Amino acid sequence: AQKITQTQPGMFVQEKEAVTLDCTYDTSDPSYGLFWYKQPSSGEMIFLIYQGSYDQQNATEGRYSLNFQKARKSANLVISASHLGDSAMYFCAMREFYGNEKLTFGTGTRLTIIP
Amino acid sequence: NAGVTQTPKFQVLKTGQSMTLQCAQDMNHNSMYWYRQDPGMGLRLIYYSASEGTTDKGEVPNGYNVSRLNKREFSLRLESAAPSQTSVYFCASSERAAGYNEQFFGPGTRLTVL
Question: Model confidence over A36-57: pLDDT tens digits?
Answer without folding.
Answer: 999 999 999 999 999 999 988 9
